[in-house]
Amino acid sequence: MTPEPFFEALGGGRFRATRSTAGPWDAGLQHAGPPSALLGRALERCAPRPDMVLARVTFEILGGVPVGEVAVSAALTRPGRSVELLEAALEAGGRPVVTARAWRVARRGAPAAGAASPPPPPPGGPATPAPFGGYADAVEFRFTEGGWDLPGPATAWTRLRVPVVAGEAPTALQRVLAVADSGNGVSGVLPFGDWMFINPELTVHLVREARGDWIRLAAATTVAADGAGVALSVISDVDGAVAHGAQALLVTPR
After folding, report:
1. Which long-range contacts (CB under 8 A, 24 or more apart) does 137-146 make?
2. pLDDT tens readout for residues 207-228
3. What is the pLDDT of residue 28?
4. Is residue 116 in some structural domain?
5. Domain ranges, residue 92
6. With a cut of 50, which residues of the chain have pLDDT below it?
7. Nearest to residue 139, comparing CAs of 6, 239, 242?
8. To which H or E segment does residue 97 belong?
9. Kind and range of the H or E element at 234?
């Protein structure tokens, strides 16, 4: 069965989430990737400034996002000539379930400098089926290190098989945000059948705009005994790193 787009636009900032958004912990709740991409879409369209570039987005996941109707809004809360702060919210059932705060900065024509990552090996090999459906059917994963059933650091190339919103080609930002929340999933260090490692937040620092359909996650998870966990990801395209992601983790038995 061909997976559906993540969302269908209903008008007035409202969207219907399809089963392609369903996550690994509950088939009735969305994986955080599709809502992150949908909020990224709202941020891109909010008082757009071609002379600025998005530098950081933090998502606060306030509760489970149902696979159903959601509403999205965005606003420019701190305008400026050099830096601006944007805020966006995704609501379900009349209450916010995910919020986003994003800084964008002015393009000043600076040359590239600092430590640059070399182009990674290109994606190759077969797609790797995930141990759950929904979102994992709508995104192609090709592991070059690790795997769903191999605990520890992992590297996987990803490609969206569906649009974020029906009838629209995903933007570079949407492609990154749609998979940035998968860092903890690809690099899990505890058995998936016994443990949940749920992130209440996701922060993505963006270096440059991604090019092409393929987005690479090189992720590692650390869990402290009786403590919190953290998943860190380097996010790349075929030319090198484009962003860095971090997720705080609640680690709890199923």
Report:
1. 137/3, 137/20, 137/161, 138/3, 138/4, 138/6, 138/20, 138/21, 138/162, 139/33, 139/178, 139/179, 139/182, 141/186, 143/186, 145/218, 146/186, 146/187
2. 999 999 999 999 999 999 888 8
3. 95
4. no
5. 7-107+127-253
6. none
7. 6
8. strand 95-106
9. strand 229-237
